[in-house]
């Protein structure tokens, strides 16, 4: 190295540990075995590593700001996340800096540069590599939002697998559908990966053949229209399409209508999120309701607790529950009682019916 110093990542490689462990040893925080501590300290002493100056200034909250890192900002999901996160930060008199990476190859440098201007970072799951998250965690508090990070990095996410399995079982068992397809890219998002796992698990639980590969598209309405074109022009059409989110499902709904198909008579469509539009379209969308604002607020709360030292940097992973909301798009009749309100239990144990 030109300046004779190694980075935390290089020290971690030499000591055979994670970057987060190097951070805990160098800052004297968290639990590390004595043998591991000696190994890290030996590498630090031999190579002259010094912790990043931010790591020593966190207790003072010197910036009064936290960062929020997203791949992009389109659609109601991100709007809800921002409102939930910012409301919690404002209550703590903390400002929020937002960075959209658009999943560019050079975005890591921009995030690391932001880390010099904030007291902590919340990063949407799947936006950065685990390697980059570990490097950032060696510099300042990091919490993963809506996903999981590498060991030692706390996270806040919603339950995805069981709720998608419950939705899929509802279609397979209660509606006797057999040809179901999944729309979404499991490799593009931790949430989508877990929903795809739940979709497959429902087939296994009922002793049915595993479904074919998903239609790997993005999470916006035009992606759903494209997926509908791909699926519904096949000689053997699916009976139902389970979409990774509501925006995609609404796109599939538009695509199906353009091809002259009726929902749910000719095709069942479901989503995930329960965005406001899900209850307003015709037919209303069967979906899984996740507490998006609470998800973001909990992330902001945990991040600030870590930044002030109230919670250890290698803190917990919080999992928020979700609810299955059954509406007309899966073929269920809507409630007929005037003024009826949604009732039910969590998705793991039952269904929630809604208009």
From TrEMBL:
Gene3D superfamilies: 3.40.50.2300, lambda repressor-like DNA-binding domains
Bias kind Basic and acidic residues: ranges: 345-355
Biased composition (Low complexity): 333-344
SUPFAM superfamilies referenced in this protein's UniProt entry, alphabetically: lambda repressor-like DNA-binding domains, Periplasmic binding protein-like I
Alphabetical UniProt keywords: DNA-binding, Transcription, Transcription regulation
Pfam families per the UniProt record, alphabetical: LacI, Peripla_BP_3
UniProt GO molecular function: DNA-binding transcription factor activity; transcription cis-regulatory region binding
Keyword DNA-binding included in the entry's annotation: yes
Location of the HTH lacI-type domain: 6-60
Residue numbers spanned by region Disordered: 333-355
Annotated protein name in UniProt: Transcriptional regulator, LacI family
């Amino acid at each position: 190295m030109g300046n004779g110093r190694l980075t935390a990542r290089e020290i971690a490689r030499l000591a055979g540990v994670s970057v987060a462990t190097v951070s805990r040893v160098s800052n004297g925080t968290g639990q590390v075995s004595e043998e591991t501590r000696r190994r890290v300290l030996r590498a630090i002493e031999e190579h002259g590593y010094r912790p990043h100056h931010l790591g020593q200034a966190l207790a003072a909250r010197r910036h009064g700001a936290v960062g929020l890192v997203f791949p992009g900002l389109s659609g109601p999901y991100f709007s809800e996340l921002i409102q939930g996160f910012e409301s919690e930060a404002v209550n703590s008199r903390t400002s929020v800096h937002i960075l959209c990476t658009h999943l560019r190859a050079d975005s890591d440098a921009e995030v690391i540069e932001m880390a010099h201007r904030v007291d902590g970072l919340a990063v949407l799951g799947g936006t950065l590599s685990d390697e980059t998250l570990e490097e950032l965690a060696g510099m300042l508090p990091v919490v993963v939002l809506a996903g999981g990070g590498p060991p030692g990095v706390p996270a806040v996410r919603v339950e995805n697998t069981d709720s998608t399995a419950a939705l899929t079982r509802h279609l397979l068992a209660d509606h006797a559908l057999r040809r179901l397809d999944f729309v979404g890219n499991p490799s593009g998002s931790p949430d989508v990966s877990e929903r795809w796992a739940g979709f497959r698990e429902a087939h296994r639980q009922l002793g049915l053949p595993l479904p074919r590969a998903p239609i790997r598209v993005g999470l916006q309405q035009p992606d759903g229209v494209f997926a509908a074109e791909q699926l519904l022009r096949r000689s053997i059409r699916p009976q139902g399409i389970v979409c990774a989110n509501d925006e995609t499902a609404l796109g599939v709904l538009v695509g199906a209508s353009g091809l002259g198909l009726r929902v749910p008579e000719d095709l069942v469509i479901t989503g995930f999120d329960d965005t406001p539009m899900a209850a307003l379209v015709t037919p209303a969308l069967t979906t899984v309701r996740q507490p998006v604002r609470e998800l973001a607020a909990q992330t902001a709360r945990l991040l600030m607790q870590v930044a002030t030292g109230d919670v250890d940097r290698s803190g917990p992973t919080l999992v928020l529950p979700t609810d299955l909301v059954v509406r007309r798009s899966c073929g269920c009749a809507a409630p007929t009682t005037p003024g009826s309100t949604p009732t039910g239990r969590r998705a793991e144990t039952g269904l929630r019916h809604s208009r």
